[in-house]
Write a structure and sequence with these properties.
There is one protein chain. The strands form six sheets. This protein has a four-stranded antiparallel beta sheet with strand order 1-2-3-4, with no helix packed on it. A four-stranded antiparallel beta sheet has the order 5-6-7-8, with no helix packed on it. A four-stranded antiparallel beta sheet has the order 9-10-11-12, with no helix packed on it. It is mostly beta strands. It is globular and about 45 Å long. The protein has a domain of 85 residues. The chain has no helices and 24 strands.
């Protein structure tokens, strides 16, 4: 790895890493390289995620070059299948940081955060049609990370949004008809006996049980109950400013370390310490 910026845990027990200066990598949890590819059209790899289909998943890589963004879709065999141009929206700067995710509804979600605004789009990957779902300005919150899950019973899309400047997480619920169904702010407060918590959430994501793992400005990873938002434990102490992205699967939390150029793996559901570091 040269300049890793994003990570996702794949259904085949491998990890995919987007490296801005080195394409994308697929590695095993023991550190062996399965695949290394440059992004199509010579673009820099800025993000990575995978579809929820366990049997025949799709790996999606976010690419950027000369002000143009696109999503490159790869098969489970890591062969290029499709390229989707990202929305060219004048409400957000072309340089704005972008992150992508795939919900359980099979749609692609893209978030862009600029100086004073955050925007979230959805995309039907079969038609390449983008729709604007959420637009927030600095009065409400500018988000530096997000995650998404789909509530099939209620037919709702839930976004977990991380606002570092306000030291809070927010959940936004959007219906299938693209109507806003609810917003909830989750303030992370220091309380007596927990002075080590919380300087400000920098990264956050849901796990398989809908609990939340958060990387904090203090350099620690915390596990929160996803219903009442109470801190359950410290997952690990990785260091301030070290983690560029986190991913969860099957009780594991994978923290991508940008400067140490490694992935630290925590089996946090079994309340164990770090038991593996993959290169």
């Amino acid at each position: 790895m040269k300049n890793p910026v994003d990570i996702c845990a794949l259904p085949n027990q491998c990890l995919a890493i987007a490296d801005y200066d080195n394409g994308f990598l697929v590695i095993t949890c023991s550190g062996d390289t399965v695949k290394h590819c440059t992004v199509a059209d010579g673009k820099n790899a800025c993000g990575v995620c995978c579809s929820a289909n366990e049997d025949d998943f799709r790996l999606l890589v976010l690419g950027y070059k000369d002000g143009h963004w696109s999503v490159h879709v790869y098969t489970a065999a890591y062969e290029l299948l499709d390229t989707i141009a990202c929305p060219d929206d004048t409400v957000i700067e072309t340089w704005a940081i972008r992150k992508l995710n795939v919900g359980g509804d099979g749609l692609l979600y893209l978030m862009a955060t600029g100086e004073h605004r955050s925007v979230i789009w959805s995309c039907d990957m079969s038609t390449h049609v983008w729709k604007t779902l959420v637009t927030e300005n600095s009065r409400r919150g500018v988000y530096n990370d997000f995650d998404v899950k789909y509530d099939a019973a209620r037919k709702e899309i839930h976004f977990l949004l991380c606002d570092y400047k306000k030291s809070q997480l927010s959940t936004v619920v959007v219906t299938e008809t693209e109507e806003l169904a609810g917003i909830q702010s989750i303030r992370m407060r220091r309380v007596k006996g927990q002075e080590w918590i919380v300087q400000g959430p920098k990264l956050a994501a849901w796990d398989d049980d809908d609990d939340i793992v958060m990387y904090d400005g203090s350099g620690k990873l915390f596990a929160f109950d996803g219903t009442h938002f109470k801190c359950k434990k410290i997952v690990g102490d990785v260091g301030k400013g070290e983690v560029g992205a986190i991913a969860m699967r099957a009780g594991w939390c994978y923290a991508l370390c940008r400067y140490r150029l490694c992935v630290e793996a925590f089996l946090y559901k079994d309340y164990k310490e770090v038991i593996e570091t993959v290169l």
